[in-house]
Task: structure prediction
Amino acid sequence: MGLSGKLALVTGGGRGIGRAVCQILSRENAQVIVTDLNLDNCNQTLQSLSQLSHLAVQSDVSSSNSVKLCFEQILDKYKRAPDIIVNSAGITKDGFLLRMKEQDFDQVIDVNLKGTFLVTQTGAGLMKDQGIQGSIVNIASIVGKTGNIGQANYTASKAGVIGFTKTAAKELGKFGIRVNAVLPGFIQTAMTDAVPDKVKEKIVAEIPLGHLGQPEDIAYTCLFLASSRSKYITGASIEVAGGLGV
Ligand code: NAP
Result:
């Protein structure tokens, strides 16, 4: 699934799933723009990539100004829009619905849902203007489909990403731009390291394949969706969850 000559932007690329996506896309010879809140983490990802001309950019996906500045840096260096965008930046602020603070609800929606909107809107606009038949991959979550106790904000944001992806696919298909969502199950990253062991054991007991997933499991699906092997797939939500939530 070679990606030679392709330029890929990955948000949340400083660690976890986003970092694995950067590594796997670069292994297939894409040039990668690694963006994240934390520039040190972006640079660490960058150092783990092959020797192509990659770029690290500090960017907050929940801020339209920061997203605009990020694309300005990309255009400055590469003189073109990315062919591939993977929206992986995301946060959790868990709590029971009846006790959830408004601020925690808003923050999760701002990063996970509005962030996906802002990056897609700017990126797809540039793709259209430059005649690039791009691929956009949004990392949602299996709990956006099933719901999950303690995650009213997060599940709403991820269900939003699934709906947003379908609308974007319908609007952008005529420009040859594909938009798909990946719904990870329980993947071993810093995000899930924070979950208490007892809760993890319960979750694993419900996974048909009997174990957590790895960031690479999600990254390989992103690679497929980014490549021309998936050229007739758009608006899809692909579950990569070991059977959780089927
Ligand atoms: P992670 O290890 O916590 O990585 C998330 C990355 O997003 C971090 O590098 C974080 O930066 C960055 N980020 C947070 N807020 C941001 C913002 N406003 N702007 C730009 N970047 C920001 O989590 P992960 O497990 O890799 O998750 C990646 C994606 O997969 C998320 O969308 C998550 O919801 C989704 N997902 C994960 C799982 C799972 O089991 N791990 C399951 C389903 C879906 P900082 O480190 O600086 O905070």
